């Protein structure tokens, strides 16, 4: 399986545990692509929901996926600071020019001051029963919520002070490079 290449455009596909498509982001520019990590960026990209509804993202975002962690992180760059939307999910796979993962409902929203809220716990419990999440998945996800909160508190990974500056600079460079082609 090939790794995504820096500068290429990929799609992001989110699935549910039952294998049904949940959401598709049409275009994300790869800023870093390895076997274990994909960091990308997008802005005003088309998103297609499972029911066919579409919308455009409002602000530039840096996205972070890891092949060994059960979460992914969307860093939304807004006028009043960076907001993070963290999806509890399967580790990603890269297949057919697409980053793919299973969304497990639980989300963590992190504010610019690094305070956070855990979201969608009721939805998680409903889907856990409906789709029969195995106990092992439930335990993995709960451990990874704790790991993610540790990253927030320790300012690790995408929460590190220089992460956004480094990757937004790389994104601006990529945009300039693409317009020269």
Features:
seven-stranded mixed beta barrel, alpha+beta, EC 3.6.1.15, 181 residues, Ntdp-like, Nucleoside triphosphate/diphosphate phosphatase, ribonucleoside triphosphate phosphatase activity, magnesium ion binding
Describe this structure in words.
With 181 residues, this protein is α+β, with helices and mostly antiparallel strands. It has a single domain (9-163), classed as FomD-like (FomD barrel-like fold), CATH 2.40.380. 27% of the residues lie in helices and 42% in strands. The protein has helices at 121-130, 135-154, 163-180, and strands at residues 9-15, 21-33, 37-42, 46-49, 54-56, 61-66, 71-78, 81-89, 93-95, 98-110, 116-119. The protein has a seven-stranded mixed beta barrel with strand order 1-2-3-6-7-8-10. It is globular, with a radius of gyration of 16 Å. The mean pLDDT is 95.
How far apart are the termini? 27 Å
- The CATH topology name reads FomD barrel-like fold
Percent in helix: 25-40%
Give the CATH H-level superfamily: FomD-like
CATH class call? Mainly Beta
Order of helices and strands: EEEEEEEEEEEHHH
Q: How many discrete structural domains?
A: 1
* Strands ordered across the widest β-sheet: 1-2-3-6-7-8-10
The Cα radius of gyration reads 16 Å
**Uncertain spans, ≥5 residues at pLDDT below 50?**
none
CATH architecture: Beta Barrel
Mean pLDDT: 95
Biggest beta sheet summary: 7 strands, mixed, barrel
Q: In total, how many beta strands?
A: 11
State which percent range the strand residues make up: 35-45%
Organism: Bhargavaea cecembensis DSE10
GO molecular function, one term: nucleoside diphosphate phosphatase activity
Enzyme class: hydrolase
Cofactor: Mg(2+)
